[in-house]
Amino acid sequence: MRFIGVDLAWGEGTATRPANETGLCAIDENGTVLAAGWTRGIDAVAEWVLREARAVAPDGHPEALVAIDAPLVVPNATGMREGEKQVGRAYGRWKVSANASNQALKWLGGVSLRGRLEAEGAVVVSGAAAPAPPAFRLVECYPYTTLVGMDELGYDDERPRYKRLPRGVPPAVARQRRAEATDDLVRRIATLRSADPPLRLESHPVTRALLDERSPLEGPAHKHREDLIDAALCAWTASILERHGESRVQLLGLGASVDSHDADGRPAVIVAPCRPSQRLTSP
């Protein structure tokens, strides 16, 4: 089985302004990184995912579990999806919440990517059942829930501050603190080589650079690094789901009366690793 993580840039770009970078990572069941990198635009992302998903299929049909950090199913015209509300209820103590996604937003690259991959045989699943065939599945995830929901990483009190600059301090101090938080996160991820399931950043030159190099202070370079970290976390989330199922994840939004599915029956579900204290529903 191949597990693919996609830290998707939600905006699709225009003819004059390219899309932001998307981080990408593919691992196997042993946590070995098979491919990793970055690309721009929905078409390029879809091509990368399809190439990796076909790499282990002798008949050329894609076979993979793909975890994407972006809304895949957005049936609600306004407001928040139920799964997004549940992120705040389950993980708010760790200072984790989700942005609202709805059809009024101008950036819904996840929906476009889902359409491209569905045309190649992919199915969006709730996370509980593995359809066979096809064996090309898509799930939506949110790396912050993985960071605080998997106790192997040790974020027992709150999420790591590796994304936005902290407020209330001089810019130089803020950039340094963000870089330190990012380096600490990478060190924690490095310990997952012996986890169940494992993730081995050192097994590929692109992800090994996360271990060998210090986090940059400058914004664009930091974002470049952050996107790869999140892609690796997405791939690991897919592996967690496959290995442990609902004993270690919860399916946020599943069963909601209004927005759990769209008109075509697709579920609006976020696959979120969780500790027992974070679980909203029984496994």
From TrEMBL:
Database matches in InterPro entries: DUF429 (IPR007362), UCP018008 (IPR008306)
Domain of life: Bacteria
Lineage of the organism: Bacteria, Bacillati, Actinomycetota, Actinomycetes, Micrococcales
Designated name of the protein: Putative RNase H-like nuclease
Source species of the chain: Frondihabitans australicus
